[in-house]
């Protein structure tokens, strides 16, 4: 019997093999007939087509519509053809700049499963639409009609903001047309995106114009240095590379209120309202005008690349870390973001300098930064390369086996119980004249400036100045306590953190978290109160029983009151979650304002620092949109980092409440995300 079965199976296998081989030998005869007559179309159209397809010998695979400009494939639509019959689809006619009316080639390509192809070509006359008008859509959501001035040219005049962000859209130009949008990407106008273009002028009203052929825009912010135009990096940054020598005068044109911009004294002296004199040693430099913070970034260059420290002591030294930033450490701290590294000024051969002001460009009570040979990770000044005679600062000398003073090697911190004077001017120098591995660091106080003062009272207590922008009070609060605020003249315009307060019609705040001691910091730049849980005189940490505090550190796309004040993986900017009930921690984030709609990347910590982090083995979620990264191969999030699931997104301008539940233990945290 077994032998009989084997014979039957063998015969069956040969029959199947013969059948497969027989199919493989058939090339087939795919047939294609277009039911659509192709004559003309407009750029930006979605061209409809219908075809009949068949193959009497072999199963069909796909029918493709392909559009060619000259020899370039510019658009394609693929339709699966499971059976013989009729199929319909659309192919988009791309809308590119500087392409005149002409003839494109439309190909219809039918293929069967054995890769036999039938192809038909059609000439398609394509032309640019002549829109009757365009629409300017501002960041605030207002729409302005841009009238047609002449062919392809459109304009609108109105009382725009001096720095107006907007994108442009068209109406549909034909029955097959689409609404087209134009935005800004990497300094270029691109069709198909709504990223805002920044228009600007020094007076209002003014005119905004756009050419749909060339994509040229008027008032597309142009800034000049000594008559040369700065290149746009993004909406907020314009740069130029040039060779400079001490004493060179630099005239800036096109900058609104340039006379009030922050002046970096290590690089410039003021000549008049629009002219500066260059101070450091001669060399190649990149000057970037930062419109957001209104200051000039100066960086040493070498052959078109950022300069690095050389063996002979020439080149550049860079600063990366916390508690320092220009023009303000509280609003534009460097953090551990290498792109924001500060270039020190070369004041003499082998001597590099940065001037800071306590409570303004350097944190008066806490610093943690270090010096690098390059603008990025790589060679750094460890404790074996740098020393200091100063007693008010400490250079970390922790070794790999955790010996030393407990501070990472080369990191610069304030000595215990030391601080910088508020308003104190300090010159920081790194001297490598005795060799780049024998550097000497000095902090020298050279004077004082008067910082702006705020006399504000929170719940009856006067707020103490932390720096020029921040004022704090530390005290006990109870859940539901009503709090009065005095001395803040524009308090009606302040952002109120919904996790910690509600604001009544009388202007008083109601405290929302559990009873406890808190540090309340009034930030006068971003106009909001930072709330942080305390344990005695120290910031609270998460305890083994789930009480204490939970903190968030993440990238620059999470922040309060908006992403413009992003955390940027800077622990000193960590966000304290609100403990709304025992062992339940909450943060409310508005998509598009506090976090991005389609991308998040942050994680939870048991302290305001890098310790006690919640990795994937301690944190889980069943949310449909947000997931917890594993750090495994193929996962673009490190273990414990939150991300957005593929194909998902948060709804723009909707508030989402993230709650971490520790009632089942600190190693069994459950995250829920609820649309508010």
Protein traits:
676 residues; mainly beta; 1 helix; 58 strands; 4% helix
In short:
This protein is mostly beta strands and 676 residues long. 4% of the residues lie in helices and 44% in strands.
- Counted by DSSP, the helix tally is 1
Round the Cα radius of gyration to an integer and report it. 32 Å
Question: Main beta sheet: strand number and arrangement?
Answer: 8 strands, antiparallel
Strand content: 35-45%
Provide a descriptive summary of the structure in words.
This protein has 676 residues and is mainly beta. Strands 9, 10, 11, 12, 13, 14, 15 and 16 form an 8-stranded antiparallel beta sheet that branches. Strands 2-8-7-4-5 form a 5-stranded mixed beta sheet, with no helix packed on it. A 5-stranded antiparallel beta sheet has the order 18-17-21-23-22, with no helix packed on it. A hairpin with a 2-residue loop joins strand 38 (457-458) and strand 39 (461-462). The protein starts with a helix and ends with a strand. The model is unreliable at 1-23 (pLDDT under 50).
Topology (SSEs and partners):
Elements: H1 2-25, E1 31-34, E2 40-42, E3 46-54, E4 60-69, E5 72-80, E6 85-92, E7 102-112, E8 117-127, E9 133-138, E10 143-150, E11 153-158, E12 163-169, E13 181-185, E14 188-191, E15 197-200, E16 206-211, E17 224-225, E18 228-229, E19 231-234, E20 237-244, E21 249-253, E22 268-270, E23 275-278, E24 283-290, E25 295-302, E26 305-306, E27 318-325, E28 333-335, E29 342-343, E30 345-348, E31 351-357, E32 368-372, E33 386-387, E34 393-395, E35 412-414, E36 424-431, E37 439-448, E38 457-458, E39 461-462, E40 464-465, E41 470-477, E42 482-483, E43 485-486, E44 501-503, E45 509-511, E46 516-523, E47 528-535, E48 538-539, E49 551-554, E50 575-576, E51 578-581, E52 584-590, E53 602-605, E54 619-621, E55 626-628, E56 642-644, E57 655-661, E58 669-675
Parallel strand pairs: 2-8, 33-37, 54-58
Antiparallel strand pairs: 1-3, 3-6, 4-5, 4-7, 7-8, 9-10, 9-12, 10-11, 11-16, 12-13, 12-15, 13-14, 17-18, 17-21, 19-20, 20-24, 21-23, 22-23, 24-25, 25-26, 27-28, 27-29, 27-32, 30-31, 31-36, 34-35, 36-37, 38-39, 38-43, 40-41, 41-46, 42-45, 44-45, 46-47, 47-48, 49-50, 49-53, 51-52, 52-57, 55-56, ...
């Amino acid at each position: 019997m077994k032998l009989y079965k084997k014979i039957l199976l063998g015969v069956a296998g040969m029959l199947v093999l013969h059948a497969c081989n027989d199919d493989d030998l058939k090339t087939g005869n795919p047939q294609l007939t277009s039911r659509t007559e192709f004559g003309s179309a407009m750029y930006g159209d979605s061209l409809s087509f219908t075809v009949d397809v068949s193959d009497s010998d072999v199963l069909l695979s796909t029918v493709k519509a392909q559009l060619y400009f000259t020899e370039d494939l510019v658009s394609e639509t693929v339709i699966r053809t499971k059976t013989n019959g009729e199929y319909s689809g659309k192919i988009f006619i791309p809308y590119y700049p500087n392409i005149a009316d002409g003839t494109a080639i439309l190909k219809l390509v039918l293929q069967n499963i054995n890769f036999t192809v039938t192809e038909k070509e059609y000439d398609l006359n394509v032309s640019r639409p002549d829109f009757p008008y365009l629409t300017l859509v501002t960041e605030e959501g207002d729409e302005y009609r841009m009238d047609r001035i002449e062919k392809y040219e459109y304009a609108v005049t109105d009382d725009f903001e001096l720095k107006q962000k907007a994108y442009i859209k068209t109406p549909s130009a034909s029955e097959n047309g689409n609404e087209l949008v134009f935005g800004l990407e990497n300094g270029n106008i691109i069709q198909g995106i709504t990223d805002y273009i920044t228009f600007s002028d020094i007076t209002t009203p003014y005119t905004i114009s756009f050419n749909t052929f060339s994509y040229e825009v008027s008032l597309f912010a142009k800034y000049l240095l000594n008559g040369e135009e700065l290149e746009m990096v993004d909406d907020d940054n314009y740069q130029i590379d040039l060779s400079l020598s001490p004493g060179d005068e630099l005239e800036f044109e096109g900058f609104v209120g340039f006379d009030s911009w922050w002046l970096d004294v290590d690089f410039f002296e003021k000549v008049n309202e629009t002219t500066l004199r260059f101070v450091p040693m001669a060399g190649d430099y990149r000057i970037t005008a930062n419109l957001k913070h209104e200051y000039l970034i100066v960086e040493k260059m070498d052959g078109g690349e950022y300069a690095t420290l050389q063996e002979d002591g020439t080149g550049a030294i860079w600063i990366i870390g916390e508690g320092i930033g220009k023009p303000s450490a509280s609003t534009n701290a460097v953090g551990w973001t290498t792109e924001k590294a500060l270039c020190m000024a070369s004041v003499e051969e082998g001597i590099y300098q940065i001037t800071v002001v306590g409570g303004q460009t350097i944190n008066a009570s806490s610093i943690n930064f270090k010096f690098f040979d390059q603008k990025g990770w790589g060679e750094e000044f460890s404790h074996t390369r740098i020393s200091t005679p100063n007693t008010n600062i400490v250079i970390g000398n922790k070794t790999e086996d955790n010996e030393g003073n407990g501070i990472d090697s080369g990191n610069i911190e304030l000595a215990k119980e030391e601080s910088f004077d508020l308003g104190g001017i300090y010159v920081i120098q790194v001297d490598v004249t005795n060799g780049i591995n024998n550097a000497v660091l000095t902090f020298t106080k050279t004077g004082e400036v008067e910082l702006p003062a705020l006399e504000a009272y929170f719940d009856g207590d006067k707020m103490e100045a932390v720096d020029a922008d921040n004022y704090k009070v530390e005290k006990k609060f109870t859940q539901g306590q009503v709090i009065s605020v005095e001395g803040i003249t524009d308090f009606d315009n302040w952002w109120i953190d919904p996790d910690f307060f509600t604001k009544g019609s009388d202007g008083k705040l109601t405290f929302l978290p559990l009873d406890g001691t808190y540090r309340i910091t009034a930030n006068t730049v971003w106009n909001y109160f930072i709330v942080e849980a305390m344990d005695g005189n120290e910031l609270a940490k998460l305890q083994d029983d789930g009480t204490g505090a939970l903190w968030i550190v993440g990238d620059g796309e999470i922040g309060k009151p908006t992403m413009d004040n992003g955390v940027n993986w800077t622990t000193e900017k960590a966000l304290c979650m609100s403990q709304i009930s025992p062992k339940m921690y909450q943060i409310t984030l508005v998509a598009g304002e506090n976090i991005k709609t389609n991308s998040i990347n942050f994680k939870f910590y048991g302290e305001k620092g890098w310790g006690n982090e919640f990795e994937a083995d301690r944190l889980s979620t069943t949310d449909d949109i947000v997931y917890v990264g594993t750090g495994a191969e193929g996962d673009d999030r490190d273990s414990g980092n939150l991300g957005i699931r593929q194909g998902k997104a948060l709804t723009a301008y909707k508030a989402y409440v993230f709650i971490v539940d520790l009632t089942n233990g600190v190693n069994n945290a459950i995250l829920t995300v609820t649309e508010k």
